[in-house]
Amino acid sequence: MIKLIPQMVYSLNIKKGYKKIENFDYLTENAPEINKQLMLDMLKKNADTEYGKRYHFDQITTIEDYKKMVPFSIYDDYAPYIERMIAGETDLLTKDPIVHYALTSGSVDNPKKIPVSEQTVKLYREYATQFSFAIIARALGKKWKRGRGLNLMEVKFETLPNGLFAGSISGRGVYSIKNLLFLMFTSPKEIVFPTEIMDTKYAHLRFALMDRNLSYIVSAFMTGISDLMKYMETNWELLVNDIEKGTIDPDIKIPDNVKAQLLTQIKPNPKRAAELRKEFEKGFETPIIPRIWPELAFVHAIGSGGFSVYTDKMRHYLGDIPIYFSIYAASESIMAICNEMETQEFVLIPDSAFYEFIPADQEDSEETLTMEQLETGKDYEIVLTNTSGFYRYRIKDVVRVVGWYKNCPKIKFVYRLNQMVSIAGEKTTEECISWAVKEFAKATDCELVDYSVYADVAVSPGRYVIFIELEKPLPKERYDAYRLIMEEKLGKANPSIGSKVKSGVLSPSEISFVQEETYALYRDLMIMRGISANQLKPVRVIDTLVKENFFFALVDKE
Amino acid sequence: MKIDVKQDGEIFVVELEGRMDTNTSPEFQKEMEAYYSKEGFNMILDFDRLDFVSSAGLRVLLLIQKKSKALNGSLVIKNVKPEIQEVFDMTGFSDILTIE
Q: Do A473 and A519 share a domain, yes or no?
């Protein structure tokens, strides 16, 4: 019975997902028309809002009208409306009821509050849950036993003056299936909805490790799963002892009332503890996950692009277990989705938002293209009209068209416009840095923990400084050789850097190796300052004074 | 790193000597657990003879600070050398920790 309930819940979601796949095939076959119609429908519906009246939505009947009459927008254009919405006013941006405000990870002091409509939540639920599960079920067949999963997305909300919750969009997704959560996942509600600071890594693992039949692991980002595995590697003895005795070690920080609740759901399990101990004692040289969770069929997390260093680490724990790379999304909208396991290419979702595109080499252009005008291999900035009241919104993401699914572009994220480094017009993207650092690691046979780039303009001419944390430090006496290797790799990743260094427009690049655990410390600090772990993205560009001071202070100088 | 714990009434005074780095931080954390796990604990870390704190050491300090908040306790760091103070200032720890 215990196994049957999750199976029924998943089967129901998968059944709905198969219908969604069928519908997706129709949507993608007719993607340009569907997408344009979505835009016209949204304008018609919202013509009577304050924003709609201001830009005469009622007079717009074509894309050309829309482009002519409605300007590009950024968050600051909506901020005054959002403040009024939070104070209780309605019909300002959209007629759709707003059910949530997504706090973005952008700024610690003043995170953006992105309105999220019921329709947007529905789209997230249908695609990120039902569609995804159906794709996975189709790919894995009976290999996925549809048992419970380990969910690392926690729900931490604050309540706004209008009574609505504000928190991460992934948390809102979990909240929307709150009644099913405990049939689908191993972690009890006290862990998924934490009300106080607690050692959640321990808590998630404590329950997941008890379940030999764990079916999968899901997280918003791969960083969360990778950190959890590292924690397991360090603390497995403590966890196994507790599983054996049915206890929670007194040194683990969990509030007493929560601990009491959790202990009611725990019994001593010496058999499972012995099984785990036997596998952990063999070490972590060979993939641990299939040894401790023999039924684990997949991992579901955003792990491409800037997260790939963490995905590489996860392969070591996973062995042959496949990854579903999930969605390409932001607080503003779910925009694209993987329609196969293991692929890192995302198909645009035609009924989720209206998309316009600015060619990446024409950043200042006011002209936009629609999806049928895109070319494979080219990069474009996405301009979004979403289902929550943002119109022609410059989300600042640049994507590359990597192919087509029916008549709909397949994309991959390339970089964020505000994360591009350019000292002398060379425009270096996250993708370039990632490639160069990984090639450096291959050439020097070292294992990467994480990395960032800093544009050092305090020297003249300016230079690139690559911050790297390694699992094991490289010998210091070969520093000059390493610097030259990095210089060569950067020059290959972005030939403009190479030629500018040669011609003296840029100074030679530098490498700064940071102390062990520096990136983990940065994440700890961000979480302490209130950023949800669900939203923590790797630091790819050191672009603020806070980051600059932090990473320079922790350079390994010894 | 040498760790010397003295009890002064309700307060645990921990004198540290040497380096708090990747090699010594796990041991430091383990030794401190007994003190920072108690409700309302009061801990003073005396850095007078501590020469270096690495990222790994900062993570342990952050952990104790979090525990002090969660358990209504207190953590005070005293006699910080200028080079460590600079690291605290640059990493933002000066705003998080109570340094005297």
A: yes
Domain with B63 in it = 2-99
Preferred mutation among A450, A542, A550 to probe B, highest tally of B CBs within 10 A: A550
- Nearest residue on chain A to B88, alpha-carbon basis: A553
Mutation site for B-interface testing, chosen from A525, A531, A548 by largest number of B Cβ within 10 Å: A525
Q: Identify the domain containing residue A391 by its residue range.
A: 4-94+353-417
Q: Examine residue A461 and say whether the peptide bond preceding it is cis (omega within 30 degrees of 0).
A: yes
Residues B90, A550: C-beta atoms closer than 8 Å: yes
Is A554's Cβ below 8 Å from some Cβ in B?
yes
Q: What is the CATH number of the domain that holds B23?
A: 3.30.750.24
Q: Domain for residue A516, yes or no?
A: yes
Q: Are residues A411 and A506 in the same domain?
A: no
A153 neighbors A193 (Cβ within 8 angstroms): no
Q: How far is B8 from chain A (nearest CA, A)?
A: 23
Are A357 and A433 members of one domain? no
Residues 6+ apart with CB under 8 A from B76: B43, B44, B45, B98, B99, B100
Q: What is the pLDDT of residues A224-277, one digit of tens each?
A: 899 899 899 999 999 999 999 999 998 788 888 999 999 999 999 999 999 999
pLDDT of residue A107: 43
Among residues A391, A417, A443, the one where a domain terminates is: A417
Domain end, chosen from A364, A382, A417, is at A417
Instruction: Indicate the burial class of A378 (C-beta count within 10 angstroms; 0-12, 13-18, 19 or more).
Output: middle
Let me know: does B4 contact B18? Beta carbons within 8 Å: no
Task: Convert the pLDDT of each residue in A88-146 to its tens digit.
Answer: 999 999 999 999 999 875 544 467 899 999 999 999 999 999 999 999 999 999 999 99
How many independent structural domains does chain B possess? 1
Q: Is residue A165 part of a domain?
A: no
Using the Cβ of A108 and the Cβ atoms of chain B, whether some distance falls under 8 Å is answered with no
- The answer to whether the CB of A139 falls within 8 A of the CB of A205 is no
